């Protein structure tokens, strides 16, 4: 929850221009109220917010836009008496193609359960959005050696509802809670081991699953992370508020 309309537009412009010919998949997930502004920057669309304009923007994303748009959260319900919530259908009208599911801050601060997160996964898929499913353990769980048990349990809650093949078609982000916003980062070897176990949990469907790491990723540690066989990208937090840092991470990903 950062930024203003002007700062978000400027950040998006700087990221887009800085990427140049970098050959990586990039998704920007702004606060919901800024999604339309980000879409306008990415699609050079400065017209009104009519339905026709929104539809044109959505079509543009499907065609050639390098940087795609995601949301930070989604409601598990399609519509109804859920004041303050935003449905997958609403997000889709504003060019969203991805949505983060089960971010650690949602789990911790808003007490989202594994069951609720599974429902959000279902809602995202139904709305045609690609879920980015976040999993990870607390510092206490890490110290007790419960990382594997916790991560597998979080994924099993979704698998039990939709099956392993559906989960494997999503993006899965390992974000150890103890490494988010703390300046700490799981070693590349630890992150690799966890994501290797995730890929194994997905069985034959896991070979092509995009597995990414999140947790204080910067230009200083990105190279070691991206060199790992089972780390296909990063869920970038604080560093994404700095265009140079974010673009630098993207460039490192392109080289690895």
Outline the structure in words.
The protein is α/β, with parallel strands linked by helices and 256 residues long. The protein has one domain: TIM Barrel (Alpha-Beta Barrel). Helices cover 47% and strands 12% of the residues. It has twelve helices and seven strands. The chain has helices at residues 5-19, 35-43, 51-63, 88-93, 104-109, 114-126, 139-143, 147-162, 164-168, 188-201, 222-226, 243-255; strands at 26-28, 67-71, 96-101, 130-135, 171-174, 210-214, 233-235. Strands 1-2-3-4-5-6-7 form a seven-stranded parallel sheet. Helix 10 (188-201) links the parallel strand 5 (171-174) and strand 6 (210-214). Helix 6 (114-126) packs across helix 8 and helix 8 runs parallel beside helix 10 (188-201). The radius of gyration is 18 Å and the shape is globular. The two termini are 30 Å apart.
């Amino acid at each position: 929850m950062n930024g203003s309309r002007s700062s978000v537009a400027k950040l998006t412009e700087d990221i887009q221009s800085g990427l140049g010919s970098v050959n990586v998949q990039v998704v920007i997930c702004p606060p919901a109220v800024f999604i339309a502004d980000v879409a306008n920057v990415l699609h050079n669309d400065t017209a009104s917010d009519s339905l026709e304009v929104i539809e044109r923007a959505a079509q543009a994303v499907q065609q050639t836009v390098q940087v795609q748009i995601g949301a930070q959260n989604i409601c598990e319900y399609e519509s109804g008496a859920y004041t303050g919530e935003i449905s997958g259908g609403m997000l889709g009208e504003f060019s969203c193609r991805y949505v983060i599911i089960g971010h650690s801050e949602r789990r911790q601060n808003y007490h989202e359960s594994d069951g609720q997160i599974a429902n959000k996964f279902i809602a995202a898929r139904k709305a045609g959005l690609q879920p980015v499913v976040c999993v990870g353990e607390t510092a206490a769980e890490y110290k007790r050696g419960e990382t594997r048990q916790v991560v597998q349990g979080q994924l099993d809650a979704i698998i039990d509802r939709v099956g392993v093949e559906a989960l494997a078609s999503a993006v899965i982000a390992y974000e150890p809670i103890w490494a988010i916003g703390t300046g700490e980062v799981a070693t590349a070897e630890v992150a690799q081991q966890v994501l290797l176990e995730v890929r194994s949990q997905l069985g034959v469907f896991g070979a092509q699953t995009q597995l990414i790491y999140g947790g204080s990723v910067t230009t200083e540690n990105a190279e070691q992370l991206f060199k790992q066989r089972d780390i296909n990208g990063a869920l970038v937090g604080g560093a994404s508020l700095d265009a140079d840092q974010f673009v630098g991470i993207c460039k490192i990903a392109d080289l690895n």
